[in-house]
Specification:
The structure holds 3 protein chains of 3 kinds. By secondary structure, chain A is an alpha/beta fold. Chain A is 24% helix and 30% strand. In chain A, a hairpin with a 4-residue loop joins strand 1 and strand 2. The N and C termini of chain A lie far apart (65 Å). Chain B is elongated, with a radius of gyration of 27 Å. Chain B starts with 5 loop residues before the first helix and ends in a 23-residue tail after the last helix. Classes of the chains: A alpha/beta, B alpha+beta, C alpha+beta. The complex binds iron/sulfur cluster (SF4) (2 copies).
Chain lengths: 196, 213, 383
């Protein structure tokens, strides 16, 4: 399958960022409608098929990179990579049988991330974007029916976020899992207590 | 379509053929009346893991060295191992507690694949219903230990391969040991350099791990 | 965190349409024999006609992706069996394919051939079961389904000999397959594959000309070519609408470029076409299987996979043509042995997007067969 060249889209929209490490086009939510409808119609691209929509959550974290300092030596530099959320779209072209083309909507906020929905252009985005909303809490403006999909209505958290802690309030039967774990720990402590 | 209902009649013909042939052709009626009659289990099928031992005494002949590789590889975390210790509190290479929670186990066989000592294998027994669904399905070390002969009975092909592999390994270890002894003897005879004795390579210890929740 | 949108409490609501007739709101499912598992359709009915439909699911949700982001790459393999539990082999392959994109591993010839053989056998299993359930939804209770189950049983026995389990196979590994087929397996496989067209002939005589099936399934749930692409439909659903798009032909993953097979295409995009496309696909699978068994080379079955699977930071999206459509795995690695992001692109989940569109204006009984023709498995929809 032929890969898709990104130069055309950069020529058309020179302000867009191309992330070479992942081979994807980074978009801010405001530009989505314009760029996506162009990609869909442009004869060189014709990205008519939206294959996959995934949310990704990045916490704020320190990254170490090796850089050359003024003296010409390689040193480690720590920098802070900001918290962000991404919605990754994988496009293919059914007409030209090419792909994939990766497009990422990036928002630098985890509090209330809002991106633009692709449902006006691709009907197939409907359930997939609902899933991203459900599991990551990313809102899609322009989505016709943004509700929970896999979790139940009224569930308060977004379970796929990296800082999600499962609440300890499930109404579960006494299954052997917790019980066994507990007993294993007790026995371990018992044994550790015996040893000098 | 010349005759309405022709397709249905043709279909009825197929059903009738199947119906009558089911009286005398086995492949038309493959049902096995289970409790009275049991389907044969083929020797490759797997169900839940069990531990192997050599010789007569289950605990002495246990192959498992409590290396906890399987515990770490188990996706649903249903294996619990606690290493044994001797009177002085020194760890010895066998598990004191080895539990497998068969209500959680998903029969994936990853534990078997990682075990370096051929100590854990998949059983194919399937009538495992139990009155107590908590403790009854939690198998402990004694329940898990089964002799090598049992292994040969349920998975003959695999058991033979395992035995061959173990024999080869043992032979290799034996040969290495001999060679080492010989070398040591030779070295001792030729020129014993004082203070520069070569220490034989110590046996690699299985990785120790802090137990986590 | 923003407050969760909440729905008003649901009730059986009877309103009026423009002419004063009653609109009835019915929750069909989750425990309904025709919904193939715990799946609910919230229908709005005008008489017997569907005027609105909302699929509701998630009853089987276990957050497979979150589990996979807690454990190492190889440990997720047995969990993928449980996605679409009818097609363990293809799920394994899709995951292995994505992981092999993260770390370049050369898969040996023999393993590639074995993968093709098991994947096509899985396609036979899935399609013959689906057709059985589809006519079951049409009212042919039992008989055709049991014939399908009878054939499926033979293939499951093959899987059991090969991998140890009938459905939760956990057979494909990063860089190859777990074990070599034992002696005689190939012969048995050959025998079953050779006998399969006879079963297909019988099945087609039983079903394809049946007037009831034709009357019930033709012109029901039509999706046009453009709609199918727009709804991101894949697999037999897409091809029944007349789009020639088969990932085996387009991506040529594995060694699919070596086999001679055709891609069946439908002309109308209705339920009958979806049924027929699957029927014809089984014949093509048999064709591929015959070639693969004939050409299976001797040799290694595992490539040089690293002992600890620790990919460099990066991402990969691998997809295959699973029996139900495009099954993709999107993996992001941050350089540790545990995936940073593990995303499944399940075919039947995405295909459900078109359900509402297909059902509007049809009768309730048609909604049942339209759902049947999508071929959903709730283990995969809910994950
Ligand atoms: S078979 Fe799989 S789930 Fe069961 S104990 Fe072994 S590793 Fe764990
Ligand atoms: S991997 Fe084998 S030797 Fe190690 S603890 Fe498990 S069963 Fe015992």
């Amino acid at each position: 399958m032929a890969a898709i060249d990104h130069k055309g889209v950069i020529r058309q929209f020179p302000e867009l960022e191309w992330e070479a490490s992942s081979g994807s086009l980074i978009l801010s939510p405001e530009k989505v409608d314009e760029v996506v409808s162009w990609l869909k119609e442009d004869p060189a691209y014709r990205l008519d098929y939206l294959s996959c929509v995934s949310g990704v959550d990045y916490l704020e974290k320190e990254v170490k990179t090796r850089v050359r300092n003024e003296a010409g030596k390689m040193v480690f530099k720590t920098s802070l990579s900001p918290e962000k959320m991404e919605v990754v779209y994988h496009f293919y072209s059914m007409e030209k049988k090419t792909g994939p083309f990766i497009l990422k909507q990036r928002v630098l906020s985890r509090e209330n991330p809002v991106v633009t929905s692709l449902t006006p252009h691709y009907g197939g985005a409907e359930l997939m974007e609902r899933e991203v909303y459900d599991l990551f809490g990313i809102r899609f403006t322009g989505h016709p029916d943004l509700r929970r999909i896999l979790m139940w209505e009224g569930f308060q958290h977004y379970p796929m976020r990296k800082d999600y802690v499962p609440p300890n309030d499930y109404e579960y039967e006494p299954t052997p899992h917790g019980d066994v774990l507990e007993r294993a720990r007790e026995r371990r402590e018992e044994l550790e207590g015996q040893s000098p | 379509m010349s005759l309405i209902g022709k397709g249905i009649l043709k279909g009825m013909g197929v059903t009738a053929k199947n119906f009558f042939q089911s009286y005398y052709r086995k492949e038309r009626l493959p049902t096995v009346e289970y409790p009275e009659e049991k389907a044969t289990i083929n020797q490759f099928s797997r169900n839940f893991p069990f531990l192997l031992y050599d010789g007569d005494d289950p605990v002495d002949g246990m192959r498992c060295t409590a290396c906890t590789l399987c515990e770490r590889a188990c996706p649903p975390q249903c294996i619990y191992i606690i290493k044994d210790k001797d009177e002085n509190g020194k760890a010895i290479l066998s598990p004191r507690i080895f539990d497998i929670d068969t209500s959680v186990c998903m029969s994936c066989q990853l534990c078997v694949e990682v075990c370096p000592y051929e100590a854990i294998r998949m059983d194919s027994a399937f009538e495992l219903s139990n009155e107590n669904r908590f403790e009854g399905l939690l198998l402990n070390r004694e329940e898990l230990l089964k002799p090598n002969a049992y292994y040969h009975e349920i998975h003959p092909l695999e058991a033979r391969e395992t035995d061959d592999r173990m024999a080869a390994k043992a032979a290799l270890a034996e040969a290495k040991k001999k060679a080492r002894q010989k070398r040591a003897r030779l070295a001792a005879k030729n020129k014993p350099p004082p203070g520069l004795k070569k220490t034989p390579p110590t046996r690699k210890k299985p990785p120790q791990r802090e137990k986590s929740e | 965190m923003s407050p969760v949108q909440t729905m008003p409490p649901r009730s059986y609501h009877i309103g009026k349409d423009d002419l004063g007739a009653d609109i009835l709101e019915v929750a069909m499912g989750p425990h309904h024999p025709s919904t193939h598992g715990v799946f609910r359709m919230d229908l709005k009915l005008d008489g017997e006609t569907v005027v609105d439909l909302k699929p509701v699911f998630g009853y089987l949700h276990r957050n497979h992706e979150k589990i996979a982001e807690d454990i190492t790459y190889p440990m997720s393999m047995p969990f993928t069996d449980r996605l679409d539990y009818l097609c363990g082999m293809t799920n394994n392959w899709a995951y292995a394919l994505s992981a092999e994109k993260l770390i370049e591993i050369k898969v040996p010839e023999r393993a590639e051939y074995i993968r093709v053989i098991v994947a096509e056998l899985t396609r036979l299993v899935n399609h013959c079961l689906l057709i059985g359930f589809f006519v079951n939804d049409l009212g042919a209770l039992g008989t055709p389904l049991l014939y399908a189950l009878r054939e499926r049983e033979k293939i499951l026995d093959l899987f059991e000999v090969l991998s140890g389990a009938r459905m939760m196979v956990n057979y494909i590994r990063f860089g190859g397959v777990r074990c070599d087929p034992p002696d005689g397996w190939l012969k048995e496989c050959q025998r079953i594959v050779d006998a399969f067209p006879a079963f297909l002939d019988e099945y087609e005589t039983l079903l394809t000309e049946n007037e009831i099936i034709i009357a019930r399934a033709q012109n029901v749930g039509v999706v046009t070519r453009e709609e199918a692409i727009n709804f991101s439909l894949t697999g037999p659903m897409l091809r029944a609408s007349g789009v020639n798009y088969d990932i085996r032909k387009v991506d040529r993953y594995g060694i699919y470029d070596r086999f001679d097979f055709k891609v069946p295409i439908g002309g109308h995009g209705d339920c009958y076409d979806r049924f027929m496309v699957r029927m014809l696909e089984m014949r093509q699978s048999v064709k591929i299987l015959k070639q693969a068994i004939r050409d299976l080379p001797e040799g290694e079955i595992m490539g040089k996979a690293p002992k600890i699977f620790r990919p460099a930071p990066g991402e990969a999206y691998g997809r295959i043509e699973a029996p139900k459509g495009e099954l993709g795995f999107y993996l992001i690695s941050d350089g540790t042995p545990i995936p940073y992001r593990f995303k499944v692109r399940p075919p039947s989940f995405v295909n459900l997007t078109a359900l509402r569109h297909m059902c509007l204006g049809h009768k309730v009984a048609d909604a049942v067969i339209i759902l049947g023709s999508i071929d959903i498995v709730l283990g995969e929809v809910d994950r």
